[in-house]
Design goal:
The complex is a heterodimer of chains A (462) and B (722). Chain A is mainly β and 462 residues long. Chain A is built from seven helices and 28 strands. Chain B has 722 residues and is α+β, with helices and mostly antiparallel strands. Among the domains of chain B are: 106 residues, no CATH class; 85 residues, Immunoglobulin-like (Sandwich), CATH 2.60.40; 227 residues, no CATH class; 51 residues, no CATH class. In chain B, the strands form seven sheets. Chain B has a four-stranded mixed β-sheet with strand order 2-10-9-6. A three-stranded antiparallel β-sheet of chain B has the order 1-4-5, with no helix packed on it. Chain B has a three-stranded antiparallel β-sheet with strand order 3-8-7, with no helix packed on it. Chain B is globular and about 100 Å long. Classes of the chains: A mainly beta (462), B alpha+beta (722).
């Protein structure tokens, strides 16, 4: 590729000189060539894409993929001149003397080591070393192997995600770069599944119990959904990658697919059998924080920081309904068991009950109709859970509540934790409810009686 | 490993050990760092909706909310206690990850270390029993004067805790200069003068705010004080400030300038040609003082100053109904004509009740239709304090806190307003009364607020007493430091064009008076004379400072604030309209008002009058003096060049010069009369010559005179008060 580009009208001699020069440099320093996908792409992602991305392309310049980076703007030479760092505007801007001209704007200058990487990469021909130059940068960066968690945690880890195994005997919990599996009845640690990303924000067990999907990431840097074999802990796939965290993952009731919500405002559907991507729904204007499937698996409802909740048809990806009644960020969503009503929670500290309907004229709701609301939640990121005719909510007071779905009556209030409740899991088959707290505690109750079955700190070694 | 590298390692290890051994306080270190780095400023994450989905409380006034947002919100995304360097609150502001706000936290800074160590220690709140910071002290503690060649001052800030202990928190305080052109202050509290003048440094630590005024004196080569005479204490105090900063005042203005200036300030109108000729030919001593007395006694003076109060009290039919607006206007005219003492004036408004159509002052509670509005209006009018910020958060630039806001609000909570519309047999009047119950609840803490007064604290008001009376009594006490100063500053600003505190209703430590002793002296004089408005006006108007020429000299050309010379200003919309009418000898008709009504006598704004609107007539929607636009506009220039109103009056067959033409007056008579009327002086020989040349060269004498009059109306001398 490099040769074909250079030989185009360039005397053979200079090509030969160039090649010789490159060989000489390599020989002298014994350096591996700079890899675009593992060294340059992560740099662009962290430092440039905030302003020069697909969403906001300042100066009409994007560099969210290799081909965008290399594209010559109209009537201008390309900003990266392959093989010629000193003529590349891209590099010139990184080292501009005047802070007003220097990129990234208003930021600390790149470290000399990083600038040198870019310089070398351009000098070596600005080559692309992944499959598709049009792919988003985040997709071509090599999959990371995440470090092992410490054997004993130095302090309790906030429990931001929980999921019961289909029979309720095991509870998966968010760990530090791992998933921990606990015995629901005794609170004993059964297994540790390594090679998960730094933080886990959602867990879901496939209905057949053969897959455990975990969504999470490194805030501001990376989002991943990893699917594991929950029995032997084997990594089955890194199914989803994004430039900021993945916030939710939900299998449909048949277990044939799962949906992912991320901080790049997207919902993505994957086939469970081979993890191939089925559909991308790019309809929200801000992060998608939570998802729920309708009982028949035909619809998905989403909660977003854009202050709306939306219902989508899974097959077409079309928007069925948009609900703006919270007027603040929407944190959690759940379908009632008959699929006719949605429960959502948001920063307005209320549970709204609504259904898809015709648009009203106020412009506040587009094809959604508010049925009722339930107050008394704190403004935490409370994600409600729906299971059969039961409905569970939690609040930042630590309180966990159980409501009757039809009457919305409060059935039970489980004893409060001392810290925020950050996660809930329910297994209807065996009437088990688990709540994870910011201080690391997990509490498990039997929902028919309200009896607490176990309570433990879900951090190995604590 | 080299020795150097080894030493460095040891040093780093020691530094990190030292850094982590002592627990970092969330309240006393982390929050101040967020303020200091600008994270929680109103333009960044401190704005009500935050930035990028991350919202902090403005200047950390709500510590509990900030703690939750930093550590718990959105699943605890923003701090990582297991891998602190991965925390967003470190990576973003240090631009390790793209940050829209740019570089705000350098990785090698002490501030970075504080946040990092706090996260490493588990991002905890402070343990119970942590001492509360009660206040801050700044050294030097009093106003400082800095001199060139080394206009430098290091500030030290000490926090005082509830057990009486003190700690140096200079490195945690935030320093801001009120005027960067005059002085700069760096993050470690070092003040550097930039040019001569006055400015303040504001120091903030948590909710505690201090401000330190600085005077910067730079020797002016060749300066020597001319020791000009003084008429009264105003000149003495103005001169002392001018001398300190090395300016000399301009000399006195001419009689013609004084006459025109004084007429405009006291009556809103130009002097007539007869008045002007009489004053200029008067050669007796003390004629300026006599003119001041004469004009203060004119009914037009009461009417014009009633209009100024009408602006502030929002006297408009849209707020008060026509009958209410008229009643209020009449009451204000009477109050000005009777020279009602300012304390009685304020009290009359503040404890008014009854039918707003009959008992005019009750309209105060109609224009302000809610408790919060009454509070914000009252404090802005009479205390010179803009409290509105404190409704939702502690005031960003002042000592006012949310507690103060709702504590003071408790004085105005028990007011009932009952509208009487046609259905109820009324005409749209409002009945204002007080009720005996009702308390204010603090929206954030839920606490019931006791009435609270600045400098006094919480006040117990006996049941059955109108709380407003307690407030009004406190407000109008002669020793209330704010009441007299605010009023004196307003009166000064009306005639001098600029307040000693500017804006006139924005008193705060971080906006100090340009001449504190002068304001204090006027306030004292005002209070000692029973808050007599005309007394204070008389003192100001008789000063050489008021009577100074508007022409600057080489020794004061740079000064715009210290009153070394008179600052010319555009006539107000109403003054200008009356002036055009006066020059052309015509009247303007206003909707629903008798023919011949002057613009400076309008009881409420004429909303559909294009000319008045163009020149900044306020619609009286707010209690702020700033609602009257004083910035020059292109539309204003166009109006005088070719606008409908000016053009119409110049072309009118009934105007002054056309009538004079018809009556057979000479060009000399007509042109001279225009000059006397428009500019309060005779034309110069040169002006007369060029006017005659223009008329002689024209075929139509009337058209040529129109040109001459048009040219005069377009001079700065006409449209400015100078």
């Amino acid at each position: 590729m490099m040769f074909s580009r250079i030989s185009n009208g360039t005397p053979l001699l200079s090509v030969m000189l160039l090649v010789t020069a490159a060989v000489t440099v390599c020989a002298l320093t014994e350096q591996e060539p700079v890899s675009f996908r593992s060294e340059i792409a992560p740099l662009l992602l962290a430092q440039c894409q905030g302003c020069h991305g697909a969403e906001e392309a300042k100066g009409e310049y994007r560099l969210d993929s290799y081909s965008e980076l290399m594209r010559a703007p109209k009537n201008e030479p390309p900003r990266v001149q392959s093989g010629n760092p000193s003529d590349s505007l891209f590099l010139q801007l990184l080292v501009a003397e005047d802070a007003d001209d220097r990129m990234p704007q208003k930021s600390a200058p790149l470290e000399p080591r990083q600038v040198e990487l870019v310089r070398r990469w351009i000098a070596e021909g600005a080559l692309f070393d992944a499959e598709n130059p049009n792919s988003a940068l985040v997709q071509i960066i090599p999959v990371r192997r995440h470090d092992l968690a410490p054997e004993k945690y130095p302090r309790p880890l906030p429990i931001t995600a929980l999921a019961f195994s289909p029979d309720g005997s095991e509870l998966a919990a968010s760990g530090l770069r791992e998933i921990t599996i606990w015995n629901s009845a005794t609170g004993q640690l059964i297994r540790r599944i390594p090679n998960m990303v730094q933080r886990t924000f959602a867990l879901d067990w496939s209905p057949n119990g053969k897959q455990l999907a975990a969504a999470g990431g490194i805030p501001g840097e990376l989002g991943e959904v990893r699917v594991f074999n929950p029995v032997n802990g084997k990594l089955l796939a890194v199914a989803h990658r994004a430039g900021d965290v993945a916030l939710d993952v939900r299998f449909n009731h048949a277990g044939s697919m799962f949906a992912v919500a991320d901080a790049e405002n997207r919902i993505t559907l994957y086939r469970a059998v081979d993890f191939s991507r089925l559909r991308l729904i790019d309809n929200h204007a801000d992060w998608v924080l939570a998802l729920a499937w309708s009982p028949d698996g035909k619809f998905l409802v989403s909660a977003s920081r854009d202050k709306t909740a939306k219902i989508f048809e899974a097959k077409s990806g079309e928007t069925i309904s948009t609900y703006g009644g919270h007027q603040k960020e929407v944190f959690g969503v759940a379908f009632r068991s008959d699929g006719n009503q949605v429960y959502s929670t948001g920063r307005d500290a209320k549970i709204h009950v609504w259904k898809a309907g015709s648009a009203d004229t106020t412009g506040k709701r587009f094809g959604a109709e508010r049925v009722a609301d339930i107050g008394g939640l704190g403004p935490a990121m409370a994600r409600p859970l729906m299971s059969g005719d039961q409905f569970f909510s939690h609040a930042n007071s630590g309180k966990v509540r159980q409501h009757d779905a039809a009457s919305r009556k409060l059935l039970r209030e489980f004893d409060g934790a001392v810290d925020w409740t950050q996660s809930l899991a329910h297994q209807a088959a065996v009437n088990l409810l688990a709540a994870g707290s910011h201080n690391g505690q997990v509490r498990i109750w039997e929902t028919q009686t309200g009896k607490k079955l176990s309570q433990f700190v879900a951090s190995p070694g604590r | 490993m080299s020795f150097l590298r080894f030493t460095l390692l040891i040093f780093l290890a020691a530094a990190s050990a030292r850094a982590t051994s002592r627990p970092v306080s969330f309240q006393h270190e982390v929050l101040p760092v967020l303020t200091r780095q600008g994270c929680n400023a109103g333009t960044c994450h401190g704005s009500p909706s935050g930035k990028g989905g991350f919202a902090l409380s403005l200047f950390a006034f709500d510590a509990a909310a900030d703690y939750a947002v930093l550590t718990r919100d959105l699943l605890g995304r923003r701090v990582d206690i297991f891998n602190p360097p991965l925390s967003l609150i470190l990576r973003k502001p240090s631009t390790a990850l793209a940050h829209r706000g740019g570089l705000k936290l350098s990785k090698n800074s002490r501030e970075y270390r504080i946040l990092h160590d706090w996260i490493t220690q588990g991002a905890q709140t402070d343990p119970p029993g942590t001492l509360r910071c009660e206040g801050i002290e700044v050294t030097p503690g009093t106003a400082a004067v800095l001199h060139w060649p080394e206009p430098l001052q290091q500030l030290r800030v000490t926090a005082r805790f509830e057990d009486g202990s003190r700690r140096d928190i200079t490195h945690l305080a935030k320093f801001t200069s009120s005027d960067e052109a005059i002085l700069k202050v760096d993050p470690v509290g070092r003040v550097t003068g930039q040019q001569r003048g006055q400015a303040a440094v504001m120091i903030r630590y948590l909710e505690h705010v201090a401000a330190l005024p600085f005077t910067l004196v730079k020797p002016v080569p060749g300066f020597h004080w001319t020791d000009p005479p003084t008429a009264n204490y105003i000149d003495t105090l103005v001169h002392s400030k001018l001398r300190e900063l090395q300016f000399n005042p301009s000399g006195l203005c001419t009689d013609s300038e004084f006459l025109r200036r004084l007429h405009l300030d006291l009556t809103g109108m130009l002097p007539t040609s007869a008045e002007a000729e009489a004053f200029l030919s008067d050669e007796s001593l003390g004629k300026r003082a006599r003119l001041i007395d004469t004009l203060l006694a004119r009914p037009e003076h009461a009417i014009f100053w009633a209009q100024r109060w009408g602006d502030l009290l929002r006297v408009t039919p849209s707020k008060l109904q026509s009958a209410g607006a008229q009643a209020m206007h009449r009451w204000l005219v009477d109050a000005m004509a009777d020279n009602m003492p300012h304390d009685r004036f304020a009290k009359a408004l503040l404890i008014s009740s009854g039918d707003t159509f009959v008992n005019a002052p009750a309209n105060y509670f109609r224009a302000s239709s809610s408790r919060d509005d009454v509070l914000e209006t009252t404090t802005q009018l009479f205390l010179g304090a803009r409290l509105a910020c404190a409704k939702c958060h502690n005031h960003p630039f002042d000592r006012w806190t949310q507690d103060h806001y709702y504590g003071m609000g408790a004085f105005f909570h028990r007011i009932q307003r009952v509208g009487v519309d046609k259905k109820k047999g009324g005409k749209g009047e409002l009945l204002v009364s007080t009720v005996s119950e009702g308390e204010v609840t603090h929206p954030r803490t839920g606490r019931t607020m006791l009435p609270w007064l600045p400098g006094r604290g919480e006040v117990v008001v006996p049941q059955g007493t109108d709380r407003r009376e307690v407030f009004a009594d406190w407000l109008t006490r002669p020793d209330n430091p704010w009441f007299a100063r605010t009023a004196a500053n307003r009166i000064w600003a009306y005639v001098m064009g600029r307040g000693i505190v500017e804006p006139v209703d924005d008193f705060r430590d971080s906006n100090p008076p340009v001449n504190g002793p002068l304001l204090d002296a006027m306030a004292r004089d005002f209070a000692e004379h029973g808050f007599d408005r005309t007394h204070l006006l008389r003192v100001i108007l008789n000063s050489r400072t008021y009577q100074a020429s508007s022409r600057s000299t080489s020794a004061n050309g740079e000064d715009r604030r210290l009153f070394s010379h008179f600052q010319p200003r555009l006539l107000s919309a109403e003054q200008l309209l009356d002036a055009v009418c006066r020059v052309t000898g015509l009247t303007e008709s206003f909707e629903g008002l008798p023919a011949g009504t002057r613009a400076t006598a309008l009881p409420s704004p004429q909303m559909n009058h294009a000319f008045l609107k163009t020149f900044g007539q306020p619609s009286r929607d707010t209690v702020c003096t700033c609602e009257r636009a004083t910035e020059p506009q292109l539309a204003q220039a166009l109006e005088f060049l070719s606008g409908k109103l000016v053009h119409g009056k110049l072309e009118s067959a009934n105007n002054r010069f056309r009538k004079a033409l018809a009556a057979g007056s000479s060009d000399h008579e007509i042109v001279t009369e225009i000059y006397w009327t428009a500019l309060s002086r005779p034309p110069s020989t040169g002006e007369l010559t060029s006017a005659f040349r223009h008329i002689a060269g024209a075929s139509d004498r009337a058209a040529a005179l129109t040109d001459v009059c048009w040219a005069i109306l377009n001079t700065n001398e006409f449209v400015f008060q100078h």
